[in-house]
């Protein structure tokens, strides 16, 4: 007789996990679906849903253990904790038609001027802030209250940044509050060619934009000769002015405006540059205030810090573009990612698709579940319904009485246009 042999399946040591792997995969799908709908969940919401699912699975009220969440994240490396960016409703309504119109305008400008990478520019304004919101810090365990002294933000400073698709950074311009400024305010600025002006509240307006266009045109004639410039910028009202047309015609500048509320998607400065630039400014401001035990920042020092951060950004970009031949610079990456240069409509639409799915670039969170498979899928792991926006909020009664169903039925009937 032949001897019967048996195989022993190697299993993980220790107690078994509370929720089976299949149910944990369902929770991951629910997390992704909530993210797609624009309602990303936090740690507490995941634990709460896990307790509900566990109670349904066990048949009695139960809760997950204290360390379940950390082990759950380890077992499912597809999920991670992120800082959610707050988008207004208007910024979340960028449509495909607007992006196609912008692409056609940019394509027409580039073909008309026979542009290269050195002829494509992007200009935008950003703020210089020394005051920040509350943040997580490292403190001694058991501390009942941890505080940080607030910096006094005595003024608002606007920085005008301009970059080209070939990686060139145009010297920045600074807008200070008030009517006058000190003659020595630029003495400590380490950037050659930096400009400064004043405005009542240090914000860009049409007059300042026109004078900046003239200054930029003079810089272009000196640095680039007679080459044309295709300028990509946002749809701010200060950028639309009759006087801007003849200034652009004089200096060979063509303005191409981004779609409304699409700067976070298609503007290279917003996508690739401002985050690291403002982080360097923040670190330098913190170092200065700590070193001098101060709560305010002189204007000349603020411009000096912004200039040093600008030089640091330019050095980092040149290092990536020149020393490491396999990688392009930060600025070039920003233009390529936004589809600005090389011109790419698929890249622009890809960024729109990523925003529509809230950053989920795979099929996760879009599965069609079978209703009879698991009760937890139908009763607990649910997502908010999509708002169609077709039903009116008010109906005309015309001296008639309506029930709840009648009100909704009347609201679903479109108004007749006169």
Short description:
One of its GO terms (molecular function) is DNA binding. This protein is α/β, with parallel strands linked by helices and 418 residues long. The protein has helices spanning 21-36, 43-58, 68-75, 96-113, 206-224, 242-251, 263-266, 268-292, 299-323, 330-337, 345-356, 375-379, 404-411, and strands at residues 120-128, 157-164, 169-177, 195-199, 229-233, 253-257.
Can you walk me through this structure?
This protein is an alpha/beta fold and 418 residues long. The protein has two domains: 15-78 and 364-384; 96-131 and 150-356, Ribonuclease H-like superfamily/Ribonuclease H (Nucleotidyltransferase, domain 5, 2-Layer Sandwich). 42% of the residues lie in helices and 10% in strands. It contains 13 helices and six strands. The chain has helices at residues 21-36, 43-58, 68-75, 96-113, 206-224, 242-251, 263-266, 268-292, 299-323, 330-337, 345-356, 375-379, 404-411; strands spanning 120-128, 157-164, 169-177, 195-199, 229-233, 253-257. The protein has a six-stranded mixed sheet with strand order 4-3-2-1-5-6, sandwiched between helices. Strand 2 and strand 3 form a beta hairpin. Helix 1 (21-36) crosses helix 2, helix 4 (96-113) runs antiparallel to helix 11 (345-356) and helix 8 crosses helix 9 (299-323). The longest helix is centred in the last third of the chain and has 25 residues, at 268-292. The chain starts with 20 loop residues before the first helix and ends in a 7-residue tail after the last helix. The mean pLDDT is 84.
């Amino acid at each position: 007789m032949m001897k019967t042999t048996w195989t022993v399946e190697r299993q993980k040591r220790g107690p078994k996990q509370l929720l089976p792997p299949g149910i944990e995969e369902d929770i991951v799908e629910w997390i992704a679906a909530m993210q797609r709908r624009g309602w990303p969940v936090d740690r507490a919401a995941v634990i709460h849903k896990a307790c509900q699912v566990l109670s349904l699975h066990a048949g009695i009220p139960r809760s997950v253990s204290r360390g379940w969440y950390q082990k759950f994240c380890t077992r499912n490396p597809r999920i991670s904790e992120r800082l959610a960016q707050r988008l207004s409703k208007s910024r979340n309504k960028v449509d495909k038609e607007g992006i196609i119109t912008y692409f056609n305008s940019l394509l027409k400008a580039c073909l008309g001027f026979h542009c290269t990478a050195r002829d494509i520019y992007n200009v935008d304004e950003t703020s210089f802030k020394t005051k920040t919101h509350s943040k997580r810090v490292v403190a001694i365990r058991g501390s009942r209250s941890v505080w940080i002294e607030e910096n006094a933000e005595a003024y608002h400073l606007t920085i005008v940044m301009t970059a080209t698709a070939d990686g060139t950074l145009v010297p920045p311009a600074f807008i200070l509050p008030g009517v006058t400024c000190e003659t020595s305010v630029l003495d400590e600025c380490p950037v050659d060619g930096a400009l400064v002006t004043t405005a009542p509240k240090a914000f860009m307006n049409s007059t300042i934009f026109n004078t900046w266009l003239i200054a930029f045109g003079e810089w272009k004639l000196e640095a680039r000769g007679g080459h044309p410039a295709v300028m990509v910028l946002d749809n701010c009202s200060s950028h639309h002015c009759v006087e801007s047309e003849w200034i652009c015609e004089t200096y060979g500048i063509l303005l191409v405006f981004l779609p409304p509320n699409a700067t976070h998607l298609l503007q290279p400065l917003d996508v690739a540059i401002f985050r690291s630039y403002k982080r360097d400014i923040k670190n330098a401001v913190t170092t200065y205030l700590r070193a001098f035990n101060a709560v305010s920042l002189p204007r000349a020092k603020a411009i000096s810090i912004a200039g040093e951060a600008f030089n640091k950004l330019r050095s980092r970009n040149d290092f990536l573009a020149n020393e490491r031949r396999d990688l392009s610079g930060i600025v070039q990456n920003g233009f390529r990612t936004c589809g600005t240069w090389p011109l790419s409509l698929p890249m622009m639409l890809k960024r729109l698709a990523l925003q529509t799915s809230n950053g989920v670039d795979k099929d996760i969170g879009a599965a069609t579940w079978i209703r009879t498979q698991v009760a937890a899928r139908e009763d607990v792991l649910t997502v908010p319904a999509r708002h169609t926006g077709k039903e009116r909020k008010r109906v005309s009664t015309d001296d008639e009485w309506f029930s709840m169903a009648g009100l909704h039925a009347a609201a679903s009937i479109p108004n007749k246009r006169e």
